[in-house]
Specification:
Number of strands: 0
Shape: globular
Number of domains: 1
Order of helices and strands: HHHHH
Number of helices: 5
Length: 132
């Protein structure tokens, strides 16, 4: 049995956390869009001939943050979108950026950012459970 007061507090934590992530993603997308308008390229510092698999984790994580925005209205649906996409990213991170090779640097990014996006989805999912 879940206490309604605890669920309310966890929901507030998840909403504030997800709002911060949504704002960060909007700033990043806005920066790319603004750079595209002013210079004609989205990222002038992009390196040529890098592996395309490096595009997959950021794209899936942006859609996972969109799942957090959906969770504001439909908690279970948004949480499931967030959790599934974050879990899809995890094997790619393990294969392409193994933790054992550079543990301290990889702990912050990409694995740290992965956890920062996954945790509010888990909190939303917990809040979507029936309160008795």
């Amino acid at each position: 049995m879940l206490d309604p007061n605890i669920v309310s507090r966890v929901r507030k934590i998840a909403r504030v956390w997800s709002l911060v992530l949504i704002i960060i993603v909007l700033f990043i997308i806005g920066g790319y869009f603004w750079n595209w308008i002013t210079t004609g390229v989205t990222d002038p510092y992009a390196v040529e001939d890098y592996p395309p698999i490096e595009n997959i984790p950021p794209l899936l994580e942006v859609v996972a943050v969109i799942g957090l925005a959906i969770a504001w209205r439909r908690e279970r649906l948004g949480a499931i979108i967030n959790i599934l996409l974050s879990l899809l990213v995890f094997p790619i991170l393990l294969i392409y950026w193994p933790i054992s090779s550079n543990f301290l640097n990889y702990l912050l990014a990409p694995y740290g950012t992965w956890l920062l996006i996954l945790i509010p989805g888990i909190l939303f999912f917990l809040c979507s459970q029936k309160v008795e």
